[in-house]
Amino acid sequence: MKKFSLLVLVLSLVVATSCKYGSQTPFDKNNSVQSRIETIKILTDADTGITESDWATWGDEFSFLILTDIHVGSLRSNSDDLPLQDFYDFLENLDSLGNKKPKFCFFLGDDIDYGDEKLIPEYEDFKSKIEAKGLKIFNVVGNHDLYQNGYDIWCKNNFPGTSFYKYAVNGVSFYCLDSGSGSFGSKQSKILKTQMEADPNLKLVFTHYPLYTNMFEVSLDDPTERNLMVNLFNRNNVIGYFNGHIHRKEETDCGLFIDYSVPSFRYRQSWTIITVNKANRTVSETVYKGSK
C-alpha cells in the first residue's frame, strides 16, 4: 500500500510539472492568471517601432516569424540541442524569402526552462541576433516561464512587460493573451470580449496553449472556457489563433479561423513563417527545419 501511495504521489508531481499541463503546481506561488491580469495594455506605433508608413510599404500582404518552446537551458533527457547555426544562417538570408520575408517576430512562450534567471544572458544573446535583423519581438508567456515565481522575471526581460496586450495598425489587430496557467481566467476573458466586440479589425490571436489538440495532452483546462473563446473569435473577425506548448505542428479548423499549433524550436528544430493577406482574409504557414 505504501509503494502504491508513493507511486501515485510521484505520478501526480510529474503531471503537475509537465510542460504539457498548466503551471499551477504546489511549488509555485502567485501563479494564477487572475492575479496577473488587471487590464489590457494597448500598444502604439511608438511602442513597437512599426508605423503606418511601414504598413503602406508592405501592402495587403505581410509575413512574420514565430518561434515557440525554445526552452533555453533544458536539462531533460530527451532535450535536443537548439538549431542555432541553422537558424542564424536563415536570418542571414531573409532577403531570399521575397514576400515571405518577416517584418516582425512572435515568441509564444516557454522561452527559458523552469524560469531560471541564470539563463537570462543566454536568452538575451539569442534575442539580440533576431533584433539585429530589424525584427521586433512580441512575447507571450508560457507555463515554464512562470515556474519558480518567474512572472516578474519574464516581464522584466520581455517586451512589452505584460502578458495581456493588443496592437492595432492598418486594419489588423494583434491580441496576445496570457494562458500560461492553462486558463484565460474570467477577468481576462471579460476584458477581451469587450475589446474584440468594439474592434472591427481583422484579428490575429497569439498565446501559449492550443484550443484543441489531437493527442492526449491537455489544452485549456476548462472546455467551457474554450468553447466560449471559439464562439467569441468566430463572431469577431479572428482569422488565426497561434500557439505552441505541445511542441509539434497541428491545425484545427474552428469555423471561421484556424487553431495553429506551431512546432517547437528546440524539440522539433523548427521555426515558422506566417503570411497574411488582408484583402483575401487568408493565412498561410511555412515551417522551416534545421538540418539535424
Could you list the spans in which at least 5 consecutive residues all have pLDDT below 50? 2-18, 20-30
**What's the helix count?**
10
Could you tell me the strand content as a percent range?
A: 15-25%
Can you list the strand order of the major beta sheet? 1-5-6-7-8-10-9
Helix share bin: 25-40%
Mean of residue pLDDT values: 89
Largest sheet: 7 strands, mixed
Q: What is the structural class? A: alpha/beta
Descriptive notes:
- The protein is α/β, with parallel strands linked by helices and 292 residues long.
- Helix content is 30%, strand content 22%.
- It is built from ten helices and twelve strands.
- A seven-stranded mixed beta sheet has the order 1-5-6-7-8-10-9.
- Helix 9 runs parallel beside helix 10.
- The relative contact order is 0.18.
Compact summary:
The protein has about 290 residues and is an alpha/beta fold.
Question: Which tags fit this structure?
Answer:
292 residues, alpha/beta, seven-stranded mixed beta sheet, 12 strands, 30% helix
Secondary-structure blueprint of this entry?
Elements: H1 2-17, H2 33-36, E1 41-43, H3 45-48, H4 52-58, E2 61-67, H5 84-92, E3 104-107, H6 120-131, E4 136-139, H7 143-146, H8 151-157, E5 165-169, E6 172-176, H9 186-197, E7 202-206, H10 223-235, E8 238-243, E9 250-253, E10 258-261, E11 270-277, E12 282-289
Parallel strand pairs: 1-5, 2-3, 3-4, 6-7, 7-8, 8-10
Antiparallel strand pairs: 2-11, 5-6, 9-10, 11-12
